[in-house]
Amino acid sequence: MVEITAALVKQLRDQTGQAMMDCKQALTQSGGDLEKAVDLLRKKGLAVLEKRGGKETREGRIVGKISPDGKHAALATLSSETDFTAKNEKFHHAAQALIDALLAATHQPPSTEALAQLKTNNGKVLADIINDLISQTGEKITLGEFARYDLDNPGLLFCYVHFNNKIGTLLQLDIPSAAAVADATVKTLANDLAMHITAINPLAISRSEVPSDIIARERDIAADQVKNKPQNIMDKIVDGKLLKWYQQHVLLEQPFVKDDSKTVQQLLEEIGKKFDATINIKRFIRIQIG
Q1: CB-based contacts of 193: which residues, under 8 Å, 6+ apart?
Q2: Is pTM, for the whole model, over 0.85?
Q3: What digits encode the pLDDT tens for the residues 91-129?
Q4: Can you tell me the distance from the alpha carbon of 86 to that of 90, in angstroms, rounded to the nearest whole number?
Q5: Nearest partner of 160 among 74, 102, 87, judged by Cα
């Protein structure tokens, strides 16, 4: 029988971060084979995941990052059952490994399953890092919503994560002027827009992006509220209510959160005039945990 030395147990513990007794048990089961013991501990992590399959992951951490050349940006979620685990240093490191792997990928993975198979900077697969974390914490930990934007036209990418790490926004602006892209005023604009989206949570950039069934539903609701009015008056009231709804849910028509005397569209036009350029919001995604 192979002797399970304290040094071997410590080596496995240093490698996996598991408790001493778990490491000793895994080494005993593997006959002292370190690699097999690591696999056993990973399988333990998978077992924990299966056992907690019905648990909800309403906590976690959102992470965002932009590539040094500014041409790629990513936003991703690593979810957990408790906030206690989300604040763990190892969880934080796993979240950083996640965003680094997503940003380094050749393109956006088509699914969370594909994302989990990306390799990190140290050569480990994301799925293995998450399984190790599951084994260490005893909690269900999952990859959540994510996005990766790549510039294919002149413009600017910006990523904002709120201080609580529970809400984040990824934003892409189309800006034809290279001078504008490099200017601090435009970078401030991107930051302010991302913060606005994070705070207000718009449904779409413009009216044309709002699904027709949603517009029809809002119009029916407004019409039902004034159904006893004469038709000509009713139509005007419904149009007014729908206009107010657009101002609440369509980004370009929303009052700018830092200065409600102007809309987001007016803000874009104001900054664009300084550079004799048209600045457009191409796309955004807002992610929230919980």
Answers
A1: 158, 171, 173, 264, 281
A2: no
A3: 999 999 999 999 999 999 999 999 999 999 888 999 999
A4: 9
A5: 74
CA neighbor of 101 nearest in space, from 81, 80, 84, 78: 78
Provide the token pair at 231.
Answer: 């038709």
CB 65 within 8 A of CB 156: no
DSSP string, 176-212: --HHHHHSHHHHHHHHHHHHHHHHH--SBSSGGGS-H
What one-character DSSP code corresponds to residue 250? B
Rounded distance, CA 13 to CA 22, Å? Answer: 9
Find the mean pLDDT for residues 18-25: 86
Q: At 282, phi and psi to the nearest 5?
A: -80, -45
**Distance separating alpha carbons of residues 64 and 161, to the nearest angstrom:** 7
Sign of CA dihedral 145, 150, 151, 155: positive
